[in-house]
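Entry for the shared binder. Reason: the reviewer on the internal report wants the predicted structure included alongside the sequence.
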Amino acid sequence: ARGMHIGINSDTPLATIHSWSVQWGLNGPLLAEKSVIELPRPDSRIIPIRPDLHEFVRLRDAFAAHVSALGVSNDRYQVIVGDANTIVSNLTADARIRDRTQVLIVVNAFRQYSLSFFVRSKRGLAWEKDEGAMAAVVEQLHVVGSDFGKLLQQSDIETNPRYCITIVHDRSAHKRTVVDTLLDIQEYENVY
């Protein structure tokens, strides 16, 4: 598509869609997590819709540490921070999981401007989606979030029971908002 810029607008973490864009040979901007833009070369820079959204990294780390501490005290919870989609897809083969763990929280390490985690409970030898465990873990997010001022108060916490995933975004973050920010920065003839 000579003369066209082809990019991606997704709620997916920037690191993930960046790797897709390299794999697929895309040449346009990447819009990730509803809140950050990566401009292609020659400008090649990363622009969040608001600089303070990078605080989600601190929230993620504090949340993971808090829930890990709960696991140390009662062996019930275990937290793994990493490539969440890959980890959740291969739970039975993951050697990091302790034998006594009953509730596993898999936090997405790739998100920089939002937060997400999967929750699974042990049932026999299998790891299953568990809405009750997810609700309990979200309560712990609120405990940690109270130390982050307005960050969590100004966020939407979306829980998806079908996948047993929770995603937290700043309330102002939307796919359309990040497109508007892109168009303020750079001019494009058509955006689809």
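Summary line for the report: The longest strand covers residues 115-123.
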